């Protein structure tokens, strides 16, 4: 069964969020939502999430799942905000516990910050399956960018998060804590072993040399033939050398510090202080 996929592009963070729904019927899942955050003022905004909610409500859809491909480092998740308005279970990869352990230390979180993934409704393992109405979803563990990265294959559509990007842009960086270019190469082979006609929906787009429009949909066949980092059967050695050299030149994403603190809590802010005010930390020389 082929799901219908509607994309929402957030230009501020180059993130693509998706609503994936039954071709007939009303069940849907939301993948990788965005809570807008202005770093300079520390203010959140729900404009991006409200667009998704308006679509879902306008079409009369039932949100069964709110899925995260991983703990994002470049935008805040709107999962709890959306869940409050539409329902649905928040899911992420089982290895979220590894990410929580790493960043629990970086942000010097106290014992009230549980490192067991219990902030999420569902922790997925490799090989798990789930349903969106009549659609079947399969879970691939595809680490490398982060230890908890998942690819959700729903019908003939694979939501690959930050693994592969569009063929002319390549692949995701692997230099965050717990990342590994060798592991990403192996994860990508798993994605490329899906049937050639499998639709691939990427987690970000940054345009690419010679392309002035944003794009987010491609196929396994196109990736195998055209991906500039990994296509045409590039070897693991070639990939690792290219990826590590490129990562050494990249700065940190603008929103990495707020994003990690919020996303490792399933999109919740840290607990408010006794006056009800919420603060995010800015660790110095830690990342
Ligand atoms: Fe990411």
Report the order of strands and helices. Answer: EEEEEHEHEHEEEEEHEEHHH
Q: For the largest sheet, list the strands in their spatial order.
A: 1-2-3-6-7-8
Unreliable parts: none
Largest sheet descriptor: 6 strands, mixed
SSE class = alpha/beta
Total strands: the figure is 14
End-to-end Cα distance, whole Å, is: 44 Å
Bound molecules: fe (ii) ion
**Shape summary:** globular
Strand content: 15-25%
Number of helices: 7
> What is the percent of helical residues?
10-25%
Task: Return the average pLDDT rounded to an integer.
Answer: 97
- The gyration radius over C-alpha positions equals 18 Å
In short:
With 287 residues, this protein is of the alpha/beta class. The protein has 7 helices and 14 strands. The relative contact order is 0.16.
Short descriptors:
23% strand; single chain; 7 helices; 24% helix; alpha/beta; binds fe (ii) ion; six-stranded mixed sheet; 287 residues
Report what the structure shows.
The chain is 24% helix and 23% strand. The protein is of the alpha/beta class. The strands form 3 sheets. A 6-stranded mixed sheet has the order 1-2-3-6-7-8, with helices on one face. Strands 9-10-11-12-13-14 form a 6-stranded mixed sheet. It has a two-stranded antiparallel ribbon with strand order 4-5. Strand 9 (129-132) and strand 10 (135-141) form a beta hairpin. The longest helix has 12 residues, at 47-58. 44% of the residues are buried. The mean pLDDT is 97. The site of fe (ii) ion has 5 residues, from loops.
